[in-house]
């Protein structure tokens, strides 16, 4: 099975004074603005790294749901946050890390099993496999 999804970007102007807009195939983002200031100066608006963070958090959480099901477990709730790090390097900028923080309520799960299953999801979700970065995880099983 092969699935293709698409996103697009439009840019006008120079790096610092230019303006861009991003769109997704689903329409969840439709000409949503982004630019230098939203990426590097903390100005509100989107940027590629936050989109990667959202993709990683959602992919990891879905992968863990699958892995839990295979272990006979179902989460009543999982909340995942991803923080993607963009760093200046000698040859430009690179995404160097993605840190996942998970809080999950899973009836019947013990912490050791939960940690093993979460680590499996971290290593094997498709977005983790895509990223050439240090991927870390803090997983907390809530009672």
TrEMBL record:
<dbReference type="InterPro" id="IPR015946">
    <property type="entry name" value="KH_dom-like_a/b"/>
</dbReference>
<dbReference type="InterPro" id="IPR019904">
    <property type="entry name" value="Peroxiredoxin_OsmC"/>
</dbReference>
<dbReference type="GO" id="GO:0006979">
    <property type="term" value="P:response to oxidative stress"/>
</dbReference>
<dbReference type="GO" id="GO:0004601">
    <property type="term" value="F:peroxidase activity"/>
</dbReference>
<protein>
    <submittedName>
        <fullName>Osmotically inducible protein OsmC</fullName>
    </submittedName>
</protein>
<dbReference type="InterPro" id="IPR036102">
    <property type="entry name" value="OsmC/Ohrsf"/>
</dbReference>
<dbReference type="InterPro" id="IPR003718">
    <property type="entry name" value="OsmC/Ohr_fam"/>
</dbReference>
<dbReference type="InterPro" id="IPR052707">
    <property type="entry name" value="OsmC_Ohr_Peroxiredoxin"/>
</dbReference>
<dbReference type="Pfam" id="PF02566">
    <property type="entry name" value="OsmC"/>
</dbReference>
